[in-house]
Amino acid sequence: MDIGIGLFGLGTVGSGVVKILQENADQITKRTGSRLSVKHAVVHNLNKERTGFIQNFPITDNATDILNNPDIQIVVEVMGTLDQAYDIIKRALNAKKHVVTANKDLIASRGQELVTIAETNGVDLFFEAAVAGGIPILRTLSTSFTADEISRVAGIINGTSNFILTQMTTNNLAYANALKLAQDMGFAESDPTNDVEGFDAAYKLIILSNFAFGVQPVLGDLAITGIANVTDADIADANAFGYAIKLLGVAQRVGDTKEAISIEVSPQLVPFSHPLATVHNENNAVLVNGESVGEVMLYGPGAGEMPTANSVLSDLTNVATDLALNTPGHPFNSFNQDLDLAKPSQRIARRFIVVEVDDTPGAMYSVTGMFAAAKISFTDLKQTPAANGTARMVALTHPASDAQLNVIKTTIRNADGINLAAEYKLFS
Ligand SMILES: NC(=O)c1ccc[n+]([C@@H]2O[C@H](COP(=O)([O-])OP(=O)(O)OC[C@H]3O[C@@H](n4cnc5c(N)ncnc54)[C@H](OP(=O)(O)O)[C@@H]3O)[C@@H](O)[C@H]2O)c1
Questions:
Q1: 173 and 53: one domain?
Q2: Beta bridge mates, 34
Q3: DSSP 28-89
Q4: What is the pLDDT confidence band of residue 54, given thresholds at 50, 70 and 90?
């Protein structure tokens, strides 16, 4: 069977898709029984010079050249944007074309609407590349964990933040210098907000939570903290206690009967002995805990031309198989359930706390008294002189809830000569 593809976007990912389709055409045909080829591509700027593989088909800036073309069965959206991509995908689905997209922002915010439109039209909508680039995590969750009960999905799912934290740790760079290096090397955009403030990871975690737990969270349901306030002193102190600081996305069942779900993006302390601590620079990893399987980790490139294109190709070949078997129209993820969002009292973890106090007699005693009043006890404690006559107290605690931490934050805010400089969860 000949299957025509219409490509929206010929940038990093789009070019990779074209390369794999052309270079591996025979293998794809052997595996799927179908011949997949790009019939038409739509771009933003027709005057841009394009070379190599991407000259073998017409290029236009008119969406209808693809959407009205009866020879095109699959639309690949790899152009980014929110409203325009939504409009194009919706029109493609209503024209009974299957859609493959890498657009995490769109799928995280309006994915459920598009899934419904795809189902109504009996067509496929796949988006493996939207989470963790080259790591095949979504299809793994939807096909290999069907019968297992997942208790947690956690991962390093933003390569930019991981690159910055790795550089701060291994090369002792200050945050601003590590960010500049990430920008110079093409790992961070000129406006890095989405990456360093945790929003990119949050979009991916929304999609992961949907696949792992069947829930449909919105951005406001997540607790989101980025890495912009991580200091080199925090990293050095964490390292001294045997931990790396990593920006993690963590979705997990919590509560006495695991009745609720906590969905959080934040920098956390990961023991050096844990596999997630060995994920360096721009790489990603996703850890899945299942009641039956135990712990599984998928590691690999979270972005980049060819890794991301490989995930798009995985979706394309799945559509091709559905077409050959006449079975399209099943949702990528059909798991749906309602779970309550975790309360602060249900978000429990050990903590790494940094407090700065006036370096006066009895100051440390009053700090420990505040924590004792909130029923938070320490397992390790270290005090070092800080600047301007203050002392820096770094502590690891026994498990404590966000509710207890909120009590401490209020107490400290109302006290003189003491400042809660940092607070991180310990991942285990
Ligand atoms: N890059 C990665 O490693 C990666 C990884 C995972 C997911 N993604 C996702 O994949 C998508 C594409 O990323 P990318 O890095 O390939 O982007 P990119 O390099 O900036 O390429 C975007 C492409 O889309 C075209 N385009 C942009 N706006 C358009 C519009 N309104 N109408 C028609 N064409 C338009 C551009 O046209 P011109 O060529 O004319 O400018 C360009 O060809 C995004 O959703 C991104 O989040 C990317």
A1: no
A2: none
A3: HHHHHSSEEEEEEEE-S-TTS---GGGGSS-EES-THHHHT-TT--EEEE-S--SHHHHHHH
A4: low
Q: What does the pLDDT look like over 88-122, one tens digit per residue?
A: 999 999 999 999 999 999 999 999 999 999 999 99
Taking the centre of ligand 1 as the mean of its atom positions, its distance from the CA of residue 282, in whole angstroms, is 19
Domain assignment of residue 331, yes or no: no
Residue 43 maps to which CATH number?
3.40.50.720
Question: Which ligand 1 atom is the nearest neighbour of the CA of 61?
Answer: 33
Residues 82 and 165 in one domain: no
Q: How far is the CA of 67 from the centre of ligand 1 (A)?
A: 18
Q: How confident is the model at residue 361, as a pLDDT? A: 84
Whether 335 is covered by a domain: the verdict is: no
Q: Do 168 and 199 fall within a single domain? A: yes
Q: Could you list the active site residues? A: 204
pTM: 0.97
Ligand 1 centroid, distance to 44 Cα (angstroms)? 9
* Residue 384, pLDDT score: 83
Residue 8 lies in domain? 2-134+305-325
Kindly compute the dihedral angle of the four CA atoms of residues 68, 84, 314, 158, in this order, to the nearest 10 degrees: 170
What atom in ligand 1 is closest to the CA of residue 14?
16
The two tokens of residue 181 are 């290096």
Judge if 173 and 119 occupy the same domain: no
Closest ligand 1 atom to Cα of 79? 24
Q: What average pLDDT is seen over the chain?
A: 96
Total Cβ atoms within 10 A of residue 352: 23
> Which residue's alpha carbon is at the smallest distance from atom 5 of ligand 1?
303
The reply to whether 144 and 290 lie within a common domain is: yes
Q: For residue range 300-346, list pLDDT tens digits in order.
A: 999 999 999 999 999 999 999 999 999 999 999 999 999 999 999 99
Residue 336 placed within a domain: no
Same domain, 152 and 282: yes
